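Narrative summary of target 7.
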Amino acid sequence: MDTTLLQDYITYGRETFQPILNEESRQKLIQYYVKMRTVGSGRGQVSAYPRQLESLIRLAEGHAKMRYSNVVEMIDVDEAWRLYREALKQSATDPLSGKIDIGILTTGLSSAARQRRHDLAKHLEKVISKQKTSTLDYQILLNETRLAFEFQVTTAMYDDALKEVQDSGKIMVKGRLIHII
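Modeled conformation, tokenized:
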């Protein structure tokens, strides 16, 4: 399709049509939203926020405009759901578990990665609490920490865990030294 023709088609749809939801479409959107919310509820996570419902509505309205319709129908809602699910698969799939994790979008980390960071921080707190000196060498503690875990501890993971411990007020990191408070 010619780019100019496509631009004209989209512009006409945007300017001419202002679709509204019919009752059937409203109910289906609510069902999809409830379905999104229940996905994470079994794991104690919030898996959908009102923003996701708003996104579904905008996608459905956009699809209706592309069909040159002033009414959002079931076909629009179903296509919005399909697009949403596909975008979610591409942007929020936890590489460790293969499951969709909304936390990746909100925090940048999957729940598994957050748990690993927390486990690292707890390990560091335990090691630090047993120290007889007031300072530790950053690199030595990193090497010891790597030996303590079965998974690969990257420097970034270690730094994040150190920051968590520092935020709790137990240490202060200055350069290559960790000062115990």
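The domain at 3-107 is CATH 1.10.8 (Helicase, Ruva Protein; domain 3).
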